[in-house]
Design a protein that fits this description.
The chain has about 375 residues and is an alpha/beta fold. About 25% of the residues lie in helices and about 30% in strands. It is built from eleven helices and 19 strands. Strand 17 (about 325-330) and strand 18 (about 335-340) form a beta hairpin. The longest helix has 11 residues, at about 115-125. About 50% of the residues are buried.
Length: about 375
């Protein structure tokens, strides 16, 4: 039974915090991650990559511009629970349709405010990814900590089938977008691309369409034969939640597609491609979650500020000789991109479509178009 106005957060290490309930009543658990973006909470919550995770926002004031429904990145909120220092219920943006607390209740997101998010962030940075529980129905510390210890982590779990579409569809038919006017060489040629939906955000598909692609989206467990039967000119692999090493069906499919079509992968798609080439992935201490991560493009030597959300990384020491690193994270030196030296295959670990975040890397969709036209 819900306790009006109260909520509790407990970590598997024994920490328990009491705060205010600012979302839906109930109880949710998952991996605790912190996000360093100052804005974009709506896009974060509706990003399927956050399935299985409890999100802490490091910026102290959240909700001040409300929610504009058109900014949703999917049909529902995927984060298990939401943790903030201070929640605003007075949106100031003229675009806002609803305040954030009411939106959280409508979306069924358990949320807590009034807790020390700086302390939580320090704990995650020092102790690594911890399981946690957020509850409005249980106030017993021992019970809450026990639940946190029993919560399933994302390690070893394929979560893509939980968030993927259930049947193939054409993006333009479903979302009634229009083709943009393109300029430059081959601007009148649209490229047929099949996009694997491992938990794709809407702005990825919009970015592909705006870069000259005709997009057909397919479920995460689509086989190589089913993709080839669609006669695409290129293949795209989306972001998504969970452990990339557990997405064996996608690894199997891509192993039969890797030398047949130009391929571009982002985030989970990057990790899956790396595994197909023989590289290994591993869970990071606390991952990259935010809209302000500096990345160096080793091809152009440019530094771009990027939007990121991943808890796993690719181990560069396991790259085979025919795969080269193309992007590096300037905060911790981790791999942020790769390409094959002989095949038309490229990938990045971060989110060039942003939403939220800067658009420094949006040009990568045009780079993919050039790769597909060769």
């Amino acid at each position: 039974m819900s306790i009006p106005g109260k909520a509790w957060l407990a970590l598997e290490n024994g920490l328990v915090m009491e705060g205010q309930a600012v979302g839906a009543p109930g109880e949710k658990s998952g991996d605790l991650v912190f996000n360093t973006a100052m804005t974009g909470y709506q896009e974060i919550l509706t990003d399927p990559s956050y399935f299985g995770q409890v999100v802490v926002m490091t910026y102290p004031l959240i909700g001040n511009y409300g929610v504009a429904i058109e900014d949703d990145e999917s049909d529902r909120a995927w984060a298990e629970a939401f943790v903030v220092k201070e929640m605003s219920s007075m949106p100031s943006s003229r675009r806002s349709n609803i305040d954030l607390p009411e939106w959280l209740r409508k979306k069924g997101v358990v949320a807590i405010s009034g807790v020390d998010t700086r302390k939580l962030t320090r704990i995650v940075r020092e102790e690594g990814c911890l399981r946690c529980v957020v509850s409005t129905i249980d106030s017993d510390p021992a019970s809450l900590v026990a639940k946190a210890k029993r919560a399933p982590a994302t390690d070893g779990r394929d979560l893509t089938h939980e968030v993927s579409c259930k049947a193939p569809y054409r993006w333009l038919d479903t979302y009634q977008d229009s083709y943009p006017t393109l300029t430059g060489p081959n601007s009148d040629q649209r490229i047929r691309v099949v996009a694997y939906d491992f938990g794709a955000k809407r702005n990825i598909m919009r970015s592909l369409v705006h870069s000259g692609f005709d997009v057909t989206v397919v479920p995460s467990r689509t086989t190589a034969d089913e993709v080839l039967a669609m006669d695409p000119q290129a293949i795209f692999l989306s972001n998504g939640p969970g452990d990339p090493a557990a997405v064996t069906h996608a690894v199997d499919a891509l192993s039969n597609l890797i030398d047949k079509k130009p391929i571009f992968g982002i985030c989970l798609g990057h990790q899956i491609l790396s595994i197909v080439f023989g590289a290994k992935t591993r869970k990071m201490p606390f991952g990259h979650h935010g809209a302000n991560h500096p990345v160096r493009d080793l091809i152009t030597s440019r530094v771009e500020i990027t939007s990121q959300n991943h808890s796993f990384e690719v181990d560069r020491s396991t790259f085979p000789p025919n795969v080269e690193e193309t992007h590096t994270n300037l905060n911790d030196g981790t791999v942020e991109g790769m390409r094959h030296t002989k095949l038309p295959v490229m990938s990045v670990q971060y989110h060039p479509e942003a939403a939220p975040g800067p658009l420094d890397s949006a040009h990568l969709f045009a780079r993919f178009r050039e790769l597909a036209l060769r």
